[in-house]
Amino acid sequence: MTFKLAVLPGDGVGPEVSRAAVRALDSVAGTLEIEYAEYIVGGAAIDAYGTPLRDEDLEACRAADAILLGAVGGPAWDDLPVENRPERALLRLRSELGLGINLRPVRWTPAGAERSPLKAEVAEGSDVAFVRELTGGVYFGKPSFRRATPAGREAVDTAHYTESQIVAVLDFAFSLARSRRGHVTSVDKANVINTSRLWREIATEYGKAHKDVTLEHALVDSFAMAVIQDPRHFDVVVTENLFGDILTDLASVIAGSLGVLPSASLRPDSGRRRFGLYEPIHGTAPTIAGQNIVNPVGAILSAALLLEWSLDRPDLAGTIRSAVESVMAAGVLTADLAAASDAAVTTDQFVDALIHTIENGGTCGRRAVRHHVA
After folding, report:
1. Given 57, 65, 189, 336, which residue is catalytic?
2. Distance between CA atoms of 114 and 339, rounded to whole angstroms?
3. Which of 113, 191, 214, 309 has the fewest Cβ atoms nearer than 10 Å?
4. 127, 157, 249, 312: which one is catalytic?
5. Following DSSP, what letter does each residue of 270-316 receive, concatenated?
6. Known catalytic membership, residue 245
7. Where are the domains of the chain?
């Protein structure tokens, strides 16, 4: 069987990290047949076609088994109307392809400890899986507009959620918790916001019907403090779209860098192979684009999630994750994590070291890797 992957390099560092992810996939593929097709999206598509996502490219993504995305956006397109900004490509992909669940795992690693503002005794061993609802809330609610009035400018955004959207993301979070430590924290703002009151009501009912998993509730503001004070307490965190977007960036301090964090945007359906879009969460980082210094780990671990969730190859996903851990543990780090700039490796050197490690059965010695990437 040949798997078809749509590759969307995007903008900024997107082409560099997506290229690294493809190299990682190829290094473990073996007899797994993967056919890649590349499409232009985001700011690059605006420049080429006048729109952030063409209809025909959307349909090509729909026909694929999975989508691998670099990143979209950047200051070059900041002054465009919101409906034609690069980010609209990502929102449209999520909405029209039914990608209602976002998985963002955040893990502490020794390599990231020196760059994390958290003390090792606080963060060591932390492993939190954030599950974010992805097609509801203020990002998609209507009406949404800004206008000038006699009293001055004003803007309106609408938060909207349905019971089915909330149940779908709870289903996924509880299922994931059963394969981990059996604990779910549902985050809301139920003391103020109606959508959050609905969220907590439905989550409470769901928890009573699925008592094999422990459920707790947390208000988003107090949770933001708690996840930094005691990240090891949390296992699976489930929340709505806006809160999830903010909290996962906050939680990146556990890992030491946004550059190492992957994500999977999945359809809320069952089955061994889910359709999904996979991307690092770090954004386009335009100030370092094209310099071969961006950390490719987030994109590479996103490729591992792709293997696990869309291609049903958790074994190959594990191979990539183990190799990443081995390379980082050997001190082969890009500038965002290296203790000193002269100790940092380039993006390509990191991927070279990763492939070298995979080809050598997962063993990565600092001296061998340094020799390999020199």
Report:
1. 189
2. 7
3. 191
4. 249
5. -SSS--EEEEESS---GGGTTSS-S--HHHHHHHHHHHHHTS--HHH
6. yes
7. 116-255
Look up residue 308 and give its two tokens: 């696990």
Q: Which of 65, 235, 245, 352 is catalytic?
A: 245
Q: Between vectors from CA 32 to CA 30 and to CA 35, what angle results, nearest 5°?
A: 115
Distance CA 195, CA 141 (A): 12
Residue 166 near residue 199 (C-beta atoms within 8 A): yes
Looking at CATH, the fold of the domain delimited by 116-255 is given as Isopropylmalate Dehydrogenase (3.40.718)
Q: What is the pTM of this model?
A: 0.92
Q: Say whether 139 is catalytic.
A: yes
Amino acid occupying residue 305: L
Angle between helices 347-359 and 314-329 (to 10 degrees): 120
Q: Are 40 and 49 in contact (CB under 8 A)?
A: yes
Residue 337: CB partners within 8 Å, gap ≥ 6? Answer: 111, 112, 114, 115, 256, 257, 259, 260, 295, 328
Catalytic site residue from 221, 230, 269, 315? 221
342 is catalytic: no
Candidate list 11, 57, 139, 161, residue with the active-site label: 139
Q: Tell me, what's the pLDDT at 362?
A: 62
Does the annotation count 278 as an active-site position? no
Q: Please give the chain's pLDDT, 374 residues, in tens.
A: 899 999 999 999 999 999 999 999 999 998 889 999 999 999 999 999 999 999 999 999 999 999 999 999 999 999 999 889 999 999 999 999 999 999 999 999 888 888 889 998 999 999 999 999 999 999 999 999 999 999 999 999 999 999 999 999 999 999 999 999 999 999 999 999 999 999 999 999 999 999 999 999 999 999 999 999 999 999 999 999 999 999 999 999 999 999 999 999 999 876 678 999 999 999 999 999 999 999 999 999 999 999 999 999 999 999 999 999 999 999 999 999 998 877 899 999 999 999 999 998 866 654 444 434 43
Can you point out the beta strands (E) in 12-151? 33-38, 66-71, 101-107, 127-133, 145-149
Tokens 């998993």, located at residue: 213
